[in-house]
Every structure is written in C-alpha cells, then in structure tokens.
C-alpha cells in the first residue's frame, strides 16, 4: 500500500493555496525518494543484505531456475505443483477460491455494496484488501510465506525481504469498449526496485480475460530499464503509443495459461493486466520487497495473526 501523506505536506496544504500544493508535493516526493535511497544504500537494506549473505539459502533446481530467469528477463513461470508437490495445498487454495468467488458473485448480484474494492481500481474485488489480520489458516498465505517461495524472493533480491502484500483478486469483466484504467495500463510499480511479485492463476486465463502482460527486459538492469526508468514513487504510465515508440509491440509477453500457473515477476518492469471482457480472472498474489520500501514507500497490507515464536529467522523477518 502507498504510504499516506506525510505531516509536512498536510501542514503546508493547510496554510497555502492549491498553487503551493505542487511545491509541497514536489518537496515531499524528493524527501521520500531521498529516504528510500538512504535506506537502500545505508540503513535497512545493508543489514538485510548481510543477513542474507551470512546464511544464503540452498535452492533446489526449480527454485534456481526461477531466480535465474527473473534475473535475466524479469519473469519466470512454473506450475504450482513443481514448487509445491502434492495435492493438499493446491486443493485448499482451490477451496479458498471457491468460497471467495461464491461470496463475491452473491455480493455483486445484490448490487456489489459489500465487495472489497479500492478507489480507482473498482474492477478488482479483493478477498482481504488492507488493514486485515492474516495467518497460517490461510492456505495462500502459507504458500507465500513458506521457505519455498521466500527463499526465491530473498535470493533474487539478495537480501532478507519483507512480505509486504498478499491477496486474492477477482477481476470483474468490463465492456470491451471500456477504457483501460490503473493497473490495466502499462506501468512500473513505484514500490521498490528490489521487488518480486508472484501471481498464481486460480482459473484458466485466456486472451479475453485480461492476462498478466509483461515486457521482458524492462526490469532494473534489463535492456529496456531506461525507458521511463524506475524511480521511487515514479508515476510511469505511458500510453500504449508512447510505449511502442520505444519498445516494439513484439516484445510484449502475455501470460495466457492454465490455472495453477505461478508467475514470478519483478514488476518494477513494465506490466499490466486484468482487463477481462469475458469471464472473471481470479488469481492470488503476493509482493516481496526490500526493507527500504517498507521504511519509505509502502505499508504492509496486513498484520500477521500467528505466533512469531514458531517462525524461523528469515520468515519472522519477512512478517515483521
Ligand atoms: O492485474 C494484473 O495483471 C496486473 C497487476 C499489477 O499491475 C500489479 O500487481 O502491480
């Protein structure tokens, strides 16, 4: 979640007219960016890098492949059961999907007053949204906070990361004539450059259902990194035409895939999705970011509801 306004701009906004708001906002943005850089280079991330280096996790072949593909191209995909062999966890996640979809469709049929949506992104109904408690009784949380996934995230960002956001989304189909808004448009996430997201498709996703789309090589360090390059708090939403002026349309990768496909991705690179014009797209998502992001740019969407004592050190770190 985006950090709320700091006291500074609130104070300035009370005193000055709207003409001064731009100045206050610009100063505030500069301050937040400087804080991020400081936490990245010197404060939070340095310690987190040392912790990772003192005890790097041992990855198996599947995990290693994912990390090296995300490093090279910004994304990697894997069938859920390659990372989590056995049926049990997947079946629990499917049961979670069924009850969420059932409740969402009942609410939508009754007018949609009860569904959890966020302003400006009303096309996504969320299982949790923000300010909730989540714990081990949630099967997607168990997967996302497991060492199977956390070790991938930590190895990719080369530090102990923070599990910052977790949810299940139901993307409501739109009229084909609707304009793309928010994350349906090409953008880089403002959260962090040391970022790993995972999307787990909970239904088969075809071309008409707003598949996740990504530009391989647009992640920091990649060949398209300089096109509207990532900045803390950056607002990079070029139009499709602007994007195509710098990156050929043939570079775009659309993730049409069967359910139980897990997509790992550094979304500091260009991506978009969720513009379904037929059936609802249902997926589970998680974001791992660096401590610098939580210290300056973002807030965790949930509080951990379980017992911290039972967790190993990297997992405890990820959840605090
Ligand atoms: O819904 C999608 O496929 C895109 C999501 C997105 O932009 C994000 O999670 O940052």
Overview features:
binds 2-oxoglutaric acid, 320 residues, 3-stranded antiparallel sheet, alpha+beta
The assigned structural class equals alpha+beta
Helices, by number, come to: 11
Q: Could you tell me which ligands this complex binds, including any ions or cofactors? A: 2-oxoglutaric acid
- Tell me about the biggest sheet? 6 strands, antiparallel
What portion of residues belong to β-strands?
A: 15-25%
Helix share of residues? 25-40%
Distance between the termini: 16 Å
Uncertain runs with pLDDT below 50, 5 residues or more?
A: 4-17
Mind telling me the C-alpha Rg? Answer: 20 Å
Query: Oligomer, anyone?
Result: single chain
| Global outline | globular
Strand order of the largest sheet: 1-8-5-10-4-2
Query: Strand tally, please?
Result: 11
The overall average pLDDT, rounded, is 92
Order of helices and strands: HHHHEHHEEHHEEEHEEEEHEH
Short description:
The chain contains eleven helices and eleven strands.
């Amino acid at each position: 979640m985006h950090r709320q306004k700091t006291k500074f701009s609130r104070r300035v906004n009370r005193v000055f007219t709207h003409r001064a708001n731009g100045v206050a906002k610009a100063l505030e943005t500069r301050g937040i960016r400087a804080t991020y850089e400081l936490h990245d280079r010197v404060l939070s991330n340095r310690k987190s890098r040392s912790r990772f280096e003192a005890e790097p996790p041992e990855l198996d072949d599947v995990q290693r492949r994912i990390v090296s593909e995300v490093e090279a191209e910004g994304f990697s995909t894997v069938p859920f059961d390659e990372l989590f062999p056995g049926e049990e966890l997947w079946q629990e996640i499917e049961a979670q999907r069924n009850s969420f979809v059932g409740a969402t469709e009942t609410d939508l049929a009754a007018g949609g007053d009860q569904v959890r949506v966020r302003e400006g992104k009303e096309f996504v109904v969320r299982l949790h949204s923000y300010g909730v408690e989540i714990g081990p009784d949630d099967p997607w949380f168990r997967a996302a906070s497991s060492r199977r996934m956390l070790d991938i995230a930590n190895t990719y960002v080369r530090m102990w990361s923070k599990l910052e956001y977790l949810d299940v989304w139901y993307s409501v189909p739109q009229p084909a004539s609707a304009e793309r808004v928010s994350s349906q448009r090409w953008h880089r996430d403002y959260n962090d450059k040391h970022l790993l997201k995972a999307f787990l498709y909970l239904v088969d996703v075809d071309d008409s259902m707003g598949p996740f789309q990504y530009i391989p090589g647009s992640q920091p360090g990649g060949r398209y990194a300089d096109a509207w390059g990532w900045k803390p708090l950056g607002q990079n939403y070029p139009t499709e035409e602007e994007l195509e002026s710098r990156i050929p349309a043939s570079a775009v990768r659309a993730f049409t895939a069967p359910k139980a496909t897990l997509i790992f991705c550094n979304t500091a690179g260009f991506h978009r999705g969720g513009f379904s014009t037929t059936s609802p797209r249902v997926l589970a998502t998680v974001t791992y970011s660096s401590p610098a992001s939580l210290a300056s740019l973002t807030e965790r969407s949930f509080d951990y509801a379980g017992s911290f004592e039972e967790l190993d050190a990297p997992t405890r770190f990820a959840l605090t």
